[in-house]
Amino acid sequence: MEQHLHTILTIILLAPLFGAAVAGLFGRQVGRVGAQSVTIGSVAISTVLSVYVFYLYIFQGADPYNASLYTWMVSDGIRFEIGFLIDKLSATMMLVVTFVSLMVHIYTIGYMDHDEDYPHDNPYYQRFFSYLSLFTFSMLSLVMANNFLQLFFGWEAVGLVSYLLIGFYMKRESAITANLKAFLVNRVGDFGFILGIAMVFVYFNTMDYQEFFDRLAEHEHTMVQFIPGVEWSVITVMVILLFIGAMGKSAQMPLHVWLPESMEGPTPISALIHAATMVTAGIFMVARLSPAYEMSEAALQFILIVGALTAFMMGLLGIIQNDIKRVVAYSTLSQLGYMTAALGASAYAASMFHVLTHAFFKALLFLAAGSVIIAMHHIQDIRQMGGLRKHMPITYFALLIGSLALIGFPGFAGFFSKDSILLAVGESDIAGSGFAYALLLMGVFVTAFYSFRMFFLVFHGQESEYVRTHTIHESPKVVTVPLILLAIPSVLLGLFMVESILDGSYFSDSIFVLAQNDVLARVHDQYFDSVVGFILHGFMSVPVWLALAGVALAWFFYLKRPDIPAKIAASLPRAKGMLENAYGFDRFNDIVFTKGSIKLGHYLWKSIDTKVIDTGMVNGTVKHIANLATMSRESQTGYMYHYAFVMIFGLLGLLIWALW
Amino acid sequence: MSVGYPILSTLIWLPIIAGLIVLFAGRNNPNFAKWFSFGAAVLTFILSLPLYFAFDMTTADMQFVERMDWIPQYNIQYFLGVDGLSMPLVLLTTFTQILVIASAWSVIKTRVEQYMGAFMIMQGIMIGVFTALDSILFYVFWEALLIPMFIVIGIWGGPNRVYATMKFFLYTFLGSVFMFIAFLYMYFQIGSFSILDFHAMPLGITAQILIFLAFLVAFAVKIPMFPVHTWLPDAHVEAPTAGSVVLAAIMLKMGGYGFVRFSLPITPDASATLDWLIILLSLIAIVYIGFIALIQRDMKKLVAYSSIAHMGFVTLGMFLVYSIVAKTGDTQGAALGMEGAMVQMISHGFISGAMFLAIGVLYDRMHTRDISAYGGVVNTMPWFAFFAVLFAMANAGLPGTSGFVGEFMVILSAFKANVWFGILAATTLIVGAAYTLWMIKRVVFGKVANDNVAQLQDLNRREFAIMATLAFVIVLLGVWPNPLLEVMHASVDNLLIQATTSKL
Predict the structure, then answer these.
(1) Which member of A58, A565, B284, B406 has the greatest number of CB atoms within 10 A?
(2) Stated pTM of the model
(3) Tell me, what's the pLDDT at A194?
(4) In angstroms, rounded to a whole number, what is the distance separating the alpha carbons of residues B465 and B457?
(5) How many domains is chain B built from?
(6) Interface of B with A in 371-400 (CB under 8 A)
(7) Residue B185 sits in which domain range?
């Protein structure tokens, strides 16, 4: 059985890598059809086997499987392994990753068929499939890891693929700027992350998760001094450093700046990487390491506040976006904030629940937005759309379902997960939870408002000039079928999962929560009797009314009285300016970090390397030696003069040293 | 350990003799010069493989030893041998040599036989440096290497080559003179030039400190460490591609090798006293040089500065042991840093070699290394772009490439020694990625910048083979570094014992 499972896991991990290698290295030889077949085939194999693993763990309750695949290296007595830790948490993530990836692979056939950036004979198409599969491999190696080394490996590998895909349209200056920015901002997070891993090494002498968990108690009271005289708890510092990595990958403020610009990549990528899977890596990591995070209340508070601020402030920015993909991107940022806040409230299961539902409905939203973009011949400005409903009915319903799930309309998947988070944060009693709860509640209203603003502007109202003068039609089947397949879990998933999430049986031992922090148990006891009851309770609670108010306001502003938004904007120029500059993060980074580093580099180079060292020391020395050499040549034969000279100098030095 | 032939002598003298043959017989026959050199390089590489496969990993003793009298009146011996520290460097040399010869194939058109001959002779000398166990023999090889390198830059170099060669020569020459004096001093104490005898000899603290400083000058120049690094960018810029490859991939390693072969075992107490100096200079190299690399306009200069920053990890990893012992009382964690330093040397050999070869590919076509002359190369050279991005990612230390392994190990170990060492070293994650990928963005990505770029031809078969070989090794070491680490363990453990055992 064990051997059997080991083989299956190895195939799940490596099949996409094989597909990526074939499509990437032999793209011209296998052609378009060959590349798409081999990548889709290999990801399909991974998906089917992941379903089986999911079945084993979630339905059969198999024991966690922790084993090494091979030894990466041994140094200093520490084994650095590549291996698997499979339990309910990783089995669930594996299924999400492979399934969404498979949908995106199929969708890509339709989306990438024609491309204005590349001639038809360019193997860009094969390259794209190769990247998709490479991403799947990287993400799987991240979620299946049983140690920090492999976690970091997957972590950086998804970053690499993200870099390659954001810059996929590599002739566009905006794309290649965005991908550089994404990589570097993520590296800022990784800077914290690798220091966190270094602390794991220093205090725990292992890279293995299980050994790390086993030794956590030993360091409950260990202190560390970064600054002499100031003592911090080792565990708190360590988990915050690791969380800084998560802030980069999961785009939490202030490291969120790369995500909106990542929309420069093709839409399937935005769905797969920058909404459904990669950006949730940080959330997954914290849930995976829950035994460590549970030991530091200070770290949890920090996480809670960061998450809540991101949820609200990024949602607000969604209101003023006019690019359809950017609206969805800011909504992703905001939803990631919800997940992060849930982590801070120790509601890891609720956070992972939202990761799952969000993966489906956000992939759905992105792919539906992509379908609109295809129909609009790659126009992305929602002000140029309008009245698309009757032209593309399937996309219309797909986007509607996605939006309802997003705003947490009772019964839809997003309702259960988001309501669990809200209730959990409401129940939490760690410092700052009241503030966080208020931000998250306001966020619900904002989410509903920007989602339906987009929805109404795209599908309802009057047809725009462009729509009237061009033929707009529904997208092909390879596009609509994935939409339908993603719409199903976006509606149903929550119904099936909510009970086991709230009573803790879903993830059971794979997530650890201290008894006094277990807010989900309290939520379960107070608010949950049955699924229907939970829905009915939802209709009577504040969040749902806030969401409906948001929808109503969007309807009023953008369909009923479209003149009002402009007036409001005109009367609040400062607020508008602040939102349009996205709170000035980009400007700050540009001035301080980008320009600052370059200035510093020039300064160091010109003043120290060139002036002091080269002109002063080196050329100066050469000149002096030359002069002295001329002098010494007069008194000697000149043969091997510098030897002699330097020896004299050396002896002098020795004498000075000895006497001094 | 023996393999049926005097393997180390073969590896030293086969290339040198081949080089001399090429030099004299290859005149007016460039094809003979190329093929003969290539054949000799391949043969040398094959003959060097038993070093790895017949290597005894369980011992720190010298292996494949050859020893005979050379100048008996002064007890100078022809004494060769390798251990886990030097063996990987020998293999790095024999491997790189094949690519070096291949890279010059159709590029060098004048005095081909001299060019090939110089590189073949250089290879033998470099292997001599890594295998010599008699300090005079070592010194002879060390100094002899300057001559062919001086000639290579001086003849086939760029417009400012005279300045660069003088700077290169004076710097390295000045450095090694002090080393020579140190050797003489120790000889007068014990009557032997054997490096192993130096390891065992007792030395007072004053003598140790003076010897340590003498070594430091010699090795710091070679590596190069701040502030004696400014010769390197100039030398690289003026050197032909293959010269840069040898310089970056192998010659810089001689400095790092010097620290583990001489400084740490011979002067452990001085190393313990002055480790702060090395660590300080290493951290300056990592942080300060990173910012300087960021603003370079010449691709070769940029990679040269990046080499200095990467070599900072080598020196940092080597001298962490004393802080770790001072903090925790034992050497647990120090081997990680030391082995990280060794891995970083090997990895940097491949990556910097690959980067310089990639720049050479562009230079051969466009005759400029100015970043601003490029843009959108991917449109005309997709395969080149593939390799360039891969090598750049390796340079930025991406996991899965060899560039990650050493940096990762050194960062972990540095953090153990002192959190601030770790924090400062880890900044390379950001700065290293910034300078490398910004260059890639400006050179490789974007629209076709001008007509010259529009007419670029993608890699030919020869270039493709070179790039693919390097890419394979870089990725292999990244996903499975264990085979490289296994051979070091015994020697590194022994080195740490030597470095922490007082000689007073």
Answers:
(1) B406
(2) 0.90
(3) 93
(4) 16
(5) 1
(6) 376, 378-379, 389, 393, 398-400
(7) 7-500
